[in-house]
Amino acid sequence: MTTELRVPTPHGEARLVTSRSRHPVATLLLSHGAGAGIDTADLEALAGNLPRHGITVVRLEQPWKVAGKRVATRPSSLDDALVAAANRLRTRTPLVVGGRSAGARSAARCARQLGAAGCLALSFPLHPVGHPEKSRLEELRAARVPTLVVQGENDVMGRPEEFPSDVDLAVVPNADHGLKVPVRGEVTQHEALGIVVEATLEWLVREVVGEGPAGGAAGAVRG
């Protein structure tokens, strides 16, 4: 079941789209990136598949996007909206915060403050394009909770080999920053999204909820 809710924040209304599990054991709150909304393929794949494994998925549409703006507002405003959304949820299950790109950065910055049980970073922008010396690794480490990074093999904002070995990392072969793969690549786009879902579910079971209703392999991604 999917529901929608408008949530007031210090920077305008945000929108929460919730895909509920019938028997939730955890709640995953996801925010989108700076250039797209909550309808990116990876966020939709997680929302479409995780609920049947006991994970309720809540996608946060930031106020700037709700207002129809094309450019994201400053990072602190993204954090404010994420905190407002998390406080509105008042979930009884463990809360995991996450997102893609800018949303992943925001989740890492806010995870500890929100008492999150984990942080999911999809396409974490480890550095600006072409500037590996401007590392955001400390921002990722600031989460101080179990964290999974799902990264494309060819992400120009941080290839998997640029992350330290102690970072929990799931790699999508040949994928770019948008987790898109070449038409004739090693895996199809459908398979790439399957990797995102399966890696996330395995990590949630291992690090957040333990063996239980969420256990087992992820189902096939909806085509």
Automatic annotation (TrEMBL):
Gene3D superfamilies: alpha/beta hydrolase. Coiled coil: none annotated. InterPro entries: AB_hydrolase_fold, KANL3/Tex30_Abhydrolase, NSL3/Tex30. It comes from the Bacteria. It holds the Pfam family Abhydrolase_11. Residues 26-203 form the KANL3/Tex30 alpha/beta hydrolase-like domain. PANTHER family: TESTIS DEVELOPMENT PROTEIN PRTD, TESTIS-EXPRESSED PROTEIN 30. This is KANL3/Tex30 alpha/beta hydrolase-like domain-containing protein. The lineage of its organism: Bacteria, Bacillati, Actinomycetota, Actinomycetes, Propionibacteriales.
